[in-house]
Specification:
It comes from Eleginops maclovinus. This is G-protein coupled receptors family 1 profile domain-containing protein. It is a single chain. The protein is mainly α. The protein has 13 helices and 2 strands; from the N terminus they run H-H-H-H-H-H-E-E-H-H-H-H-H-H-H. The chain has helices at 3-20, 30-59, 68-85, 87-95, 103-137, 151-171, 192-227, 236-267, 274-290, 294-304, 307-320, 327-333, 345-354; strands at 174-178, 182-186. The N and C termini lie far apart (76 Å).
């Protein structure tokens, strides 16, 4: 027996012994998982579509004159809306137990859209938090997304391009595989483990660890500044800042933790026992689905908790309602920041700049 055959025999024996110790069988729970994930996707699709649609509708018309925080919020909502639009495909895929029926083109396109959002949403949240911190504590510091000039558009385009490039590293290996049933999987023809580990580590660093460091650090500094501000109206403004960090971590940490542990098992087989890997494989799709809660949480945290945004939303709705007779005079007198009426331009500009600035914390 050659050394290579001897190693293969030892590997097979180790796998057999490893598999024997597997006492957990989660296959029976697969049906419940599919139902739960379908309902979760359906909830995120319906609520997220409504929330992000309203956010973009209210804020889009002033995107050219918006401050850096609001400009980032618009991009976050655009990014979240992109991934929400592909959720019907994911809903059907999870219902049919990973069977993909829409061909190779949509397999690659939907994955590309999802992965671009995966990165871009975190990038813009990080820059928005840093922008907010600078506007509160370093007002003389140049803004990342200034209102005047091309800098905001260059930086915005750069973040989208970076998200696209990072997404392509995974997307080039996405394909429709015809096994027992067609499925949409990332399956490099060569060096699968190396590619899987590289893509996972890049996503861990660029999508989670880097943005989380910026978001948590800036929010801690913002909380300190807000706590000492003379116009703080209680503790709400302080703890709300930490909620931003907590929600980001809760959405993404479980997914990256499961992904990281899976990488360890791929690099060093038999590091974990069979029961552990059974739980990891079962929970991977669950944590990936739960991470999409950011599409629902972001509009609430960064828009609907803001009184300025709620006022803009109400005034925008009022301005689009049909008016008759004296209703036109009433509508003309309602000077919303988003409205097209007259009023005090300075007041409109002030409300516009304060709007949706992380629930107006410290404004």
């Amino acid at each position: 027996m050659s050394a290579h055959e001897h190693n293969d025999t030892l590997m097979d024996n180790n796998y057999t012994l490893w598999f024997i110790h597997c006492t957990i069988d989660l296959d029976a729970a697969g049906d419940y998982r599919r139902i739960a994930l379908f309902l979760l996707y359906l909830f995120i699709f319906m609520v997220g579509l409504l929330e992000n649609g309203l956010v973009i509708w209210v804020n889009w018309r002033r995107r050219h004159s918006a401050n850096g925080v609001l400009f980032c919020i618009i991009n976050v909502s655009l990014s979240d809306l992109m991934v929400i639009m592909i959720l019907p495909f994911l809903m059907m895929e999870v219902t049919m137990d990973q069977v993909w029926l829409w061909g190779r083109f949509l397999c690659k396109v939907t994955n590309l859209v999802y992965t671009v959002n995966f990165y871009s949403s975190s990038f813009f949240l990080a820059f928005m938090t840093a922008e907010r911190y600078l506007s509160l504590t370093r007002p003389s510091f140049p803004a990342f997304f200034p209102v005047v000039g091309r800098r905001r558009w260059v930086l915005c385009g750069g973040l989208w391009v970076l998200s696209l490039l990072l997404a392509l590293l995974e997307n080039i290996h996405m394909d429709l595989l015809e096994w027992d049933e067609p499925g949409c999987y990332m399956m490099p023809e060569q060096n699968f483990i190396e590619w899987f580990a590289a893509v996972s580590f890049l996503s861990l660093i660029f999508q989670f660890l880097g943005p989380a460091a910026v978001i948590i650090t800036c929010n801690v500094l913002i909380a300190r500044a807000v706590r000492t501000a003379p116009d703080v109206q209680g503790r709400r403004d302080v703890w709300l800042v930490h909620v931003y960090s907590l929600v980001f971590v809760m959405c993404w940490l479980p997914y990256h933790l499961v992904s990281f542990l899976t990488i360890i098992d791929e690099i060093g087989p038999f590091v974990f026992n069979c029961n552990t890997m059974e739980v990891l494989f079962f929970s991977y799709s669950v944590t990936k689905s739960l991470s999409l809660f950011h599409c629902v949480a972001n509009p609430i945290l960064y828009n609907f908790l803001s009184k300025s945004f709620r006022d803009n939303l109400i005034n925008t709705v009022v301005n689009h309602l049909p008016r008759e007779g004296t209703g036109n005079q009433l509508g003309a007198g309602t000077n919303a920041p988003n409205g097209g009426g007259g009023g005090d331009p300075g007041k409109q500009r002030k409300l516009s700049n304060a709007s949706t600035s992380q629930s107006d914390v410290g404004s």
